[in-house]
Specification:
The chain is mostly helical and 226 residues long. It contains twelve helices and two strands, in the order αααααααααααβαβ. The longest helix is centred in the last third of the chain and has 22 residues. It starts with a helix and ends with a strand. 27% of the residues are buried. The mean pLDDT is 88.
Amino acid sequence: INHPIAVAKIVASEIGLGATSIAAALLHDVVEDTPITVEDIERLFNPKVAQMVEGLTKISLVQKDLNASVQAENFRKMLLTISDDVRVILIKLADRLHNMRTMQSMPAHKQLKIASETLFIYAPLAHRLGLYNIKTELEDLGLKYTEPEVYLDIVTGMKESKEEQDRYIQTFSEPIKASLDKEGVKYQIRGRSKSIFSIRRKMRNQSVTFDEVYDKFAIRIIYKSN
């Protein structure tokens, strides 16, 4: 029961879906794992919840035979057409996110398979649907299991460069603050480290080490209405 409850919490608090989606998230593995049928769910709940659970069951069954690296784009397209309700896909992303957060005790070969599948299929899908926080977390967790040594090196480097990050953000922000204050603009400046996965991508694309990646940080200015 812990997994479906966790998926339902993600659906509610991190994606922001409502009661029907929460019910479907709680029930998303029931048809696949128990004798309960889609018809039973329709009778006990309602047709919409049953339809969503049926869509999630179809995705799980197709996914078992997936060769992620070869069929990833076709599978993403199929996911977007397997149900006329996008909430089915959003629940599936919540399901995968919880799987990625909790697979540290799995055998290494299963971790690698699930993580590779996540990078090929689910992270791009989250990006396409505008779930950028979930996309970033899926990418970072995917890297954790596909390139664990590289992941650990980047995490360590980011912790060690925290003071550098804070100084960079402060130095960069000061002239912007002065200009915006002079114009009487209401704003908020936020600084953050770029994602672990994006730093790894820069390292690979530019053939450089972590220390040679110069844009590890990002600054965002949020303008506020009067």
